[in-house]
Specification:
Number of strands: 10
Distance between the termini: 10 Å
Radius of gyration: 18 Å
Mean pLDDT: 95
Order of helices and strands: EHEHEHEHEHEHEEEHEH
CATH superfamily: Divalent-metal-dependent TIM barrel enzymes
CATH architecture: Alpha-Beta Barrel
Strand order of the largest sheet: 3-2-1-10-7-6-5-4
Helix content: 25-40%
Oligomer: single chain
CATH topology: TIM Barrel
Number of domains: 1
Length: 276
């Protein structure tokens, strides 16, 4: 497996070139870029990123020997097939795929709609499933893996929920973007990996420390400093056939530590778990 870093981890003021230089210098083997809102940061992609800008970013990727491994986004919230937001979801989906193809990445991250207010779990499941099925043929034609992520929106509360959703879509190009930190509060990552198996196409890594047992609350911690059992998680990923990037999606909390030292620390932590 290879070490990668999500660009959200990088100091928000850095330019795109400074970002590639810093992440490469820390020892990472890949970087995940994000489609964000206009003005989010100088190293964010947006819905208006141009072909010329993609070419410049790809040149940076080659200059620093740092492949763009995937395209994430902060923009999915509620867009996957709920009423008038459906067109926005389609535009975001294809912008991410466009970015991935232009930058040499093989996959993107999407998020099914979460329940809340008038939107019941059943209604958002139907809408999200219909959205993915509607775009299934075009996704397959474009050839970029589309991963659905487990996040804290009440949608995937069990690996069996995720398996059923993916299998009902029924496409080899649509699978799981598994975040191995997002279920620690209420479940066990290695058990999810065993159930998901070969459906896993991309992986985010972070860590969460429980206040005791499951469903007891907790805090986000640095990788290897929480409740994640990496000695079980990494072998489970290998057994599932996963040999791709482990993408750190973490944030510096120590004000005394420089960003450069923090990037190196995260690279070291991911390198350590890769050895299991």
């Amino acid at each position: 497996m290879k070490r990668a870093l999500n660009a959200w981890t990088v100091e928000s003021s850095l330019t795109m070139e400074e970002t590639f230089a810093a992440v490469a210098a820390a020892g990472f083997e890949g970087i995940e870029l994000n489609v964000d809102g206009e003005g989010h940061s100088p190293h964010a992609l947006t819905m208006t990123t141009t072909d010329a800008e993609y070419r410049a970013i790809r040149a940076l990727s080659q200059k620093y020997g740092l492949p763009v491994c995937s395209i994430s986004t902060s923009q999915w919230g509620g867009k996957m097939g709920i009423g008038e937001r459906h067109p926005d979801g389609a535009a975001l989906l294809y912008k991410q795929i466009e970015a991935a193809a232009a930058l040499g990445a093989d996959g993107i991250l999407t998020v099914p709609s979460g329940m809340g207010g008038v939107h019941t779990l059943e209604s958002v499941r139907r809408a999200s499933l219909a959205f993915m099925k509607e775009h299934r043929e075009e996704i397959e034609r474009l050839g970029i893996f589309v991963g659905v992520e487990n996040v804290w929106n009440g949608f995937f509360l069990s690996p069996y929920d995720m398996v059923r959703f993916i299998d009902e879509i029924g496409s080899p190009k649509i699978g799981a973007y598994l975040d191995v930190g997002n279920m620690i509060a209420f479940s066990v990552p290695e058990y999810w990996i065993e159930v998901l198996g070969g459906r896993i196409g991309k992986v985010h890594v972070k860590d969460y420390k429980r206040n005791g047992s499951l469903n007891s609350g907790g805090t986000w911690e640095d990788i290897t400093h929480g409740s994640a059992d990496w000695k079980a998680i990494i072998p489970a990923l290998r057994a599932a056939g996963y040999d791709g990037y482990l993408v750190g999606e973490v944030f510096k909390s120590d004000a005394e530590m420089t960003y450069e030292a923090y990037y190196e620390k995260v690279a070291g932590e991911i390198g350590a778990i890769c050895a299991y």
